[in-house]
Amino acid sequence: MSAQPEEALAPPAPAAAAQLLAQLRADRRAESWVPAFERDWAKALEDSRHAYSLTPVHDVIRTWQLRVAAAPAVDAYMDSGRDESSFVDLDDVLSARP
């Protein structure tokens, strides 16, 4: 019997952060993404030091891997020219409730 829950994710590969950073630097969004990743990474390292856990580091890697993976779909949606001007602001809907 394992001490971890069954849904526990496998930790990222040891070189995952370096590979991810190289991928971010090669992306067209590098100007904004690289500083954001480095900020998140520094905070995760600090949190890991205080918590004696690698979970914050793993979470940053997984989050940024998901962002990079979703970027093409976001680009395709933004490039599709969909008109979103008819959408209602959520604040307008929630403020109208009794």
Characterise the protein shown here.
By secondary structure, this protein is mainly alpha-helical. Helices cover 65% and strands 0% of the residues. It is built from four helices and no strands. It has helices spanning 16-26, 30-51, 55-79, 90-95. Helix 1 packs antiparallel against helix 2 (30-51), helix 1 packs parallel to helix 3 and helix 2 (30-51) packs antiparallel against helix 3 (55-79).
Number of helices: 4
Biggest beta sheet attributes: none
Return Rg in Å: 19 Å
Low-confidence stretches: none
- Secondary-structure element pattern, one letter each: HHHH
Question: Overall 3D geometry?
Answer: extended
Beta strand count = 0
Q: What class do helices, strands and sheet pairing give?
A: mainly alpha
Structural descriptors:
single chain, 98 residues, mainly alpha, 4 helices, 0% strand
Nutshell version of this structure?
With 98 residues, the chain is mostly helical.
Set out the fold topology:
Elements: H1 16-26, H2 30-51, H3 55-79, H4 90-95
Helix pairs in contact: 1-2, 1-3, 2-3
